[in-house]
Each structure stands twice: as C-alpha cells, then as structure tokens.
Amino acid sequence: MTYPESLFQVQEPQEYLPFEETTAIFVGTPEALAEMLVDLKKAKEIAVDLEHHDHRSYVGIVCLMQISTREKDWVVDTLQLRGELQILNQVFADPNVIKVGLAIGRSTYR
User: Stretch 44-60: mean pLDDT, rounded?
Assistant: First the structure.
C-alpha cells in the first residue's frame, strides 16, 4: 500500500470552523448514510470517534460514531445501521484519505 506524499510533509495547523457555524447531522437511515458517504468520498482527511457501551460486558458494543470533515460533522447511530456500515469501507480503506482517530480515554458512564 502506498500513501500520499503529503502525509509525510510538515503542515501548518488549520483552524476549525467556529461552533456557531457548524451543525451535526444525525445519520440514522441507510439513505442518510449514503448521503454522508458522498461527502466523505470528497474529503482528503476525516476524523472519527467511537462511543461504546460495555456495562456488564467484557467486549462492549459500538453505539455511536462521530465523523467529521473540515466542513461537516455527522453523528451515526451504529446500532440502527450496523448491517449497513460496511459501505464506509470505501473511505476507511482508501489510503488517499487521511483518518484521524480520537482516543480520549475510558468512559465512566454507568
């Protein structure tokens, strides 16, 4: 697998859009997922964060995915769409799209 040369270059940080200028789009249907995929395929970089539930479980289950580009944010109901999410592999497996994952730490919600 080859990666884009820009991935190995030092870049100046880019400011994110002000909170007042952004909205999170809820994705809970296959149609909304397909619309999100159209935008993600145009992105050069995306950020992904997963929320999981592991109460009384050693394995846990992903219940929410947050995906952002420089222009848009989405909140994906992974429980509702778990049979459909494989279409995101078109972006997640593309070496030309830089993926940034967020790992804030273990949730203590109970």
Answer: 82
Flag whether 93 is in a domain: yes
Burial of 67 from C-beta contacts in 10 A (0-12 / 13-18 / 19+):
buried
Which residues face 61 on adjacent strands?
53
> Into how many domains does the chain fold?
1
Residue 14, in any domain of the structure: no
- Specify the DSSP element, H or E, that contains 30: helix 30-42
Asked whether the beta carbons of 100 and 46 are under 8 A apart, the reply is yes
Residue 27 buriedness (CB in 10 A; 0-12 / 13-18 / 19+): buried
| 33, pLDDT greater than 90 | yes
Render pLDDT for 70-101 as a digit per residue (tens, 0 to 9). 889 999 999 999 999 999 999 999 988 989 88
